[in-house]
Design goal:
81 residues; mainly alpha; F1FO ATP Synthase; 93% helix; rod-shaped; CF(0); membrane; cell membrane
Length: 81
């Protein structure tokens, strides 16, 4: 009986880790898309500062991607530990 309860708990934890990783990836995709759209709009408004805007966009997108990668790794670790 106890083994069945532990197996059910492990299954629920696995589903939770997968859902958490999925939410992290979807959030990062939406965030990077929003950053790209805002940067393109800013470049269209002021083309002379395109280099500065592009470099800032890349830095911010890398930070968002790093946070998403960290969230996915935490979800994977919670799945196996």
């Amino acid at each position: 009986m106890l083994a069945m309860i532990l197996a059910a708990i492990e299954g629920i934890l696995g589903i939770g880790a997968c859902v958490g990783a999925g939410i992290a990836v979807i959030g990062a995709g939406l965030g990077i898309g929003k950053i790209g759209a805002s940067a393109m709009e800013a470049i269209a408004r002021q083309p002379e500062s395109a280099g500065d805007i592009r470099s800032n966009m890349i830095v911010i997108a890398a930070l968002v991607e790093g946070v998403a990668l960290f969230a996915v790794i935490v979800c994977i670790l919670s799945l196996f530990l």
